[in-house]
Amino acid sequence: MGKVYSYMTRPIRSFNIENRTARILERKKPVPAPQYPSVEKQKELVDKLKPDFKETMLKKDPELHDRLKNVFVQSKDPEITPTSHRPLPQDRSHYSLDEISKSIVPIRGKCTVNQIVEFITKHQENKTEYSIERISQDYKIDKKTVENILQNFKLFHHLKEETPLMLDDKKKN
Predict the structure, then answer these.
(1) How far, in Å, are 95, 119, 131, 134, 146 from residue 137 at the CA level?
(2) How many folded domains does the chain comprise?
């Protein structure tokens, strides 16, 4: 509906547009916006105190301009004082996950990913020797949690390579 409305009102808006623009361009100054009464009072007060204030503001004062040329600003960055007195570490070498997991102090009921992978592989290799009870005692984890981990998380299994016969069977299908 907006498109139809703009299509219908376009001739009215563009009627006599050249003459209207010519009249606007012929004006010497645009009409200023109305001012607040408080601003008008301030202007009257300034006119009473200094009648030539407007002219002096618009003129370039050579004395002030020369003073401005003589001004030189010099700044210095503030000195940064360290908040703590401890020295920064000098060793910036990277650590592997094995080193990090060994340095972590074991917390009761928690283990690292490396420890979980380790007890899953041990349990898969020998389920009788590394039972749920033994794992829960060694790593200080709840038996139910160990059971859930062993049931829901599996490590990658090595698959046998496909024989050429198996490949031919797949091609036929």
Answers:
(1) 29, 12, 10, 5, 10
(2) 1
